[in-house]
Structures are given as structure tokens and as C-alpha cells.
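Next comes a single protein record:
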Amino acid sequence: MATLQDSLKQHRKPVKVSIRQWIAQLDDDDRKAIEAAAVDPGFTNAALVQVMREAGVSVGKDTVAAWRGDHGFARQ
């Protein structure tokens, strides 16, 4: 017979990681790289979304655009 704890674990929805949570978990070099990419016009929002999704972050283009804006990025 399953314990209450086992039953609860089975029914818990996975929590999706936010951009800020993900960045906080990165090592210093990766954190610097993604923060540099935030203000680099050579990266599209779509490209950064793809990189973050591949890393397990649930994001969309609007979220990435807002995050980049928070870092001072503005489309020219």
C-alpha cells in the first residue's frame, strides 16, 4: 500500500522554472554569457527562447523580450 507521501508525489504537477530561477542556478560563466546575450542585438528573441527551452525553461518570446528590456536591451 502506498503511503500518503508517495501518493502526493505522484499527483504533484511539475513546477516550471522561470528565467530568473534558471539564471540563479547557472554557474558564473554561464550567467555572464546569458546576461551578455540579453543585450546583444545579434541574438533574436526566438533564438534565446530556443536556448532557454532546450535548458528546460518554460518561456515565450514576450517573456524573453521583457527580460531583455529589464537588462537594458532596446530594439533599434
